[in-house]
Amino acid sequence: MKLTKELVGLSAEYAVACELCRRNIYAQLTLGNRKRTDILIETDRGMARIQVKGKNGPDWPHCKGIFRKDDFLVFVDFKNKSVDERSDFYILDVNDWIKLLEKEIRSTSNIEEGYVTIDEENVPIWKGGTGIIKGHNITPKMIVEHKERWDKIKKSVGETE
Question: Is it the case that residue 112 has pLDDT exceeding 90?
Answer without folding.
Answer: no
